[in-house]
Amino acid sequence: MTGGVRSGKSRHAEELLAEHDEVVYLAAGPVYDDADWAARIAAHRVRRPASWTTEETQDIAGVLDAAGQPVLVDCLGTWLSAVIDQASLWEAPVDQVEEHVLGRFDLVTAALAGAGVPVVLVTNEVGLGVVPEHRSARLFRDLLGTINQRVGAVCDEVHLVVAGRVLKI
Length: 169
Hints:
Elements: E1 2-3, H1 9-16, E2 24-27, H2 35-47, E3 53-56, H3 60-66, E4 71-74, H4 76-86, H5 94-114, E5 119-124, H6 135-154, E6 159-162, E7 165-168
Parallel strand pairs: 1-5, 1-6, 2-3, 2-4, 4-5
Antiparallel strand pairs: 6-7
């Protein structure tokens, strides 16, 4: 599931898993005290069935490996930002950042390939957006683009959501 900010991709991901009573909603982003993050999680929780559980962690692979029910991972963009931020790598050499991030993401890719439950991943489509011309923006865009390609290689379906409209690719 990919799309721009506020495109409806998270809502569409929830709809894809609506037939399941129990789903793990994995908020894969900041795990520190952040009022905006807490508000985002609370807003999503209101929309979902009460039988769904919410986990807030960057350990996507660990959750997928342990899951006994479908998992909705929201969102790879927030995961990427948190991984770079918590390792204090925004100013590090690009190859060092890539090694750290993609090494961690290799674990996610392996867990996706071996998942015995339905998994829906939400991510931002960086190829269509305007990216500010500064180092951090380019770093984020390039890494998320690589991550999206790796996910696309192991997924059964890719959906692009733009303005609430869904295109199955």
